[in-house]
């Protein structure tokens, strides 16, 4: 029989191993980004003469200012709309008696299994027929459709765990369906909404394939497309590639750190009554 101290030590060791597994690649990228331009450093070693200007050079080489602006516009077009529709659909499938609700949910679950790569060709011709090829709408509209199945699945799971007593009390007080949703269930869903928004932000911000195929203008793509600026005909500038990658990752880290409490709370919601 293991003692509580031994169990705590084991859990701590596992958490430290997982932390190192996640942090070491970032540390390696950071030290590589500070190496001499054009070099190919290996492993993790702090350079004798850190070249901090590599971040400025990477920013200029990939035109990250235009890419960050484009990514922000795409995120603003995708995340609020998808979260709003997924929340409404998840609530309807979980709390309301929607005709054919089970069939609709089954179709959405099928959508979770479809890879983007299998849909890219029909998406291209559909967007072309709509006259949106080469515009940011060619990225926003498909992303909304691709993210909806997971969003509905996430929010439906949350609303299924909601207390039925709250809904019954609202009905007794004369509240309608919309009032019950807006004044009772929606405020309680803040952790789930925050976590879903973070997940959708990451999926949109790091989107690479759709912008590459559907948009010709590099300044209308997401920041992930900027990494191609460091790939030449005869090789890749590893130093600037790492510096550019860190610039792309930074907003994602900031967003996650800001909403980490709600993210963890949403994951644990329903585990303890």
Automatic annotation (TrEMBL):
<feature type="transmembrane region" description="Helical">
    <location>
        <begin position="104"/>
        <end position="125"/>
    </location>
</feature>
<dbReference type="InterPro" id="IPR035906">
    <property type="entry name" value="MetI-like_sf"/>
</dbReference>
<feature type="domain" description="ABC transmembrane type-1">
    <location>
        <begin position="68"/>
        <end position="259"/>
    </location>
</feature>
<dbReference type="GO" id="GO:0055085">
    <property type="term" value="P:transmembrane transport"/>
</dbReference>
<keyword id="KW-0813">Transport</keyword>
<keyword id="KW-0732">Signal</keyword>
<feature type="transmembrane region" description="Helical">
    <location>
        <begin position="186"/>
        <end position="205"/>
    </location>
</feature>
<dbReference type="Pfam" id="PF00528">
    <property type="entry name" value="BPD_transp_1"/>
</dbReference>
<keyword id="KW-0812">Transmembrane</keyword>
<keyword id="KW-1133">Transmembrane helix</keyword>
<feature type="transmembrane region" description="Helical">
    <location>
        <begin position="137"/>
        <end position="155"/>
    </location>
</feature>
<dbReference type="GO" id="GO:0005886">
    <property type="term" value="C:plasma membrane"/>
</dbReference>
<feature type="signal peptide">
    <location>
        <begin position="1"/>
        <end position="35"/>
    </location>
</feature>
<comment type="similarity">
    <text>Belongs to the binding-protein-dependent transport system permease family.</text>
</comment>
<protein>
    <submittedName>
        <fullName>Raffinose/stachyose/melibiose transport system permease protein</fullName>
    </submittedName>
</protein>
<feature type="transmembrane region" description="Helical">
    <location>
        <begin position="238"/>
        <end position="259"/>
    </location>
</feature>
<keyword id="KW-0472">Membrane</keyword>
<keyword id="KW-1003">Cell membrane</keyword>
<dbReference type="InterPro" id="IPR000515">
    <property type="entry name" value="MetI-like"/>
</dbReference>
<feature type="transmembrane region" description="Helical">
    <location>
        <begin position="59"/>
        <end position="92"/>
    </location>
</feature>
């Amino acid at each position: 029989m293991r003692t509580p101290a031994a169990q705590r030590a084991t859990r701590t060791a596992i958490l430290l191993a997982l932390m190192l597994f996640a942090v070491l690649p970032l540390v390696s990228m950071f030290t590589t980004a500070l190496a001499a331009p054009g070099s190919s450093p290996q492993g993790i070693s702090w350079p004798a003469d850190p070249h901090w200007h590599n971040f400025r050079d990477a920013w200029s080489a990939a035109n990250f200012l235009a890419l960050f602006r484009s990514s922000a516009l795409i995120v603003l077009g995708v995340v609020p709309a998808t979260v709003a529709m997924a929340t409404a659909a998840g609530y309807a499938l979980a709390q309301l008696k929607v005709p054919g609700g089970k069939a609709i949910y089954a179709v959405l679950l099928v959508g979770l299994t479809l890879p983007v790569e299998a849909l890219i060709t029909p998406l291209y011709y559909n967007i072309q027929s709509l006259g949106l090829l080469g515009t940011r709408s060619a990225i926003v509209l498909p992303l909304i459709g691709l993210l909806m199945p997971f969003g509905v699945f996430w929010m439906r799971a949350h609303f299924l765990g909601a207390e039925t007593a709250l809904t019954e009390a609202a009905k007794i007080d004369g509240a309608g369906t919309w009032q019950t949703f807006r004044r009772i269930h929606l405020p309680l869903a803040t952790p789930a909404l925050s976590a879903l928004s973070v997940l959708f932000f990451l999926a949109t911000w790091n989107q690479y394939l759709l912008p590459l195929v559907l948009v010709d203008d590099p300044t209308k793509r997401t920041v992930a497309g900027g990494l191609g600026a460091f790939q030449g005909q005869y090789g890749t500038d590893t130093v600037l590639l790492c510096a550019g990658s860190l610039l792309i990752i930074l907003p994602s880290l900031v967003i996650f750190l800001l909403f980490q409490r709600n993210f963890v709370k949403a994951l644990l919601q329903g585990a303890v009554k």
